[in-house]
Design goal:
Elements: H1 14-25, H2 46-62, H3 69-86, H4 130-141, H5 162-178, H6 185-202
Helix pairs in contact: 2-3, 2-6, 3-6, 5-6
Length: 245
């Protein structure tokens, strides 16, 4: 159910926004092309629905600023979201403007971590732990082709990777923060946090380098090699006062 807005909206919902505004503003060659894709039934894609809803809310908010609002909306929100949606490796990967929707992408494969590995929080949050967030939101939103591919990788046992745990935990916490802000919050979460973080996790040279969605986790990476620095090379911050004049 759509939450009530703090101000009257120009468009009654995201569907009207896409149909009456966005598709006319972003006219692109999406027929018989491989560098830009679009699904006429965008509302059948979880990620597209969330992104376009966020774009609509951001537009309704920023249009209140007659001088900078629309430019900010284009540069900080629309261009970044549309680049992800039109990306041939994005959520519309198997769809086309000519032949319509094809339901071939699925949520990211996951294996549940051992019980008690992650503590739940008692705060006023939507998801009580990073595990709930990844299983019930993130994996549904970022549906990608991660099976039998070399350009996008994923580990179903993400919780066995220190970097993935740290990144996904931070994504969960900042999502809980931005969801309270309405207006441009969710759009900012995507473009400033989720997209850059997920790009790193999907990178075949990253922390999931030797893992795969089909065969699971492989523990072949180790911490970066390091040797001990010279004694006294780095001072204790508590001793900084000695150097102040």
């Amino acid at each position: 159910m759509t939450e009530p807005q703090e101000y009257p909206t120009h468009y009654p919902n995201v569907a009207a926004f896409v149909d009456q505004y966005l598709r006319y503003v972003y006219q692109r060659q999406v027929t018989d092309t491989t560098d830009a894709v679009w699904c006429p039934e965008w509302w059948k894609h979880t990620e597209a629905t969330i992104r376009l809803e966020a774009l609509w809310r951001a537009w309704e908010n920023l249009r209140q600023d007659p001088s900078r609002g629309l430019s900010i909306w284009f540069l900080d929100h629309a261009d970044k979201h549309m680049a992800k949606l039109l990306d041939p490796n994005g959520p519309f990967k198997y769809c086309s403007a000519r032949h319509g929707h094809r339901q071939l992408l699925a949520p990211l494969p996951l294996r549940t971590p051992p019980a008690g590995m992650f503590n739940e929080v008692s705060d006023d949050v939507t998801y009580k732990s990073v595990v709930q967030f990844v299983e019930n939101y993130l994996s549904m939103t970022f549906q990608r082709q991660v099976t039998d591919t070399t350009d996008t990788v994923w580990c179903p046992e993400w919780w066995k990777h220190h970097e993935a745990v740290a990144r996904l935990d931070s994504l969960w916490r900042v999502w809980e923060h931005f969801r309270q802000q309405g207006a441009t919050g969710l759009s900012e979460w995507f473009v400033e946090h989720a997209d850059p973080q997920m790009k790193q996790l999907f990178d075949p040279r990253g922390t999931f380098r030797y893992c795969s969605a089909r065969h699971g986790h492989k523990d072949l990476l180790s911490p970066l090699p390091a040797s001990e620095p010279q004694v006294g090379m780095f001072s204790n911050p508590e001793d900084a006062e000695e150097y102040q004049v």
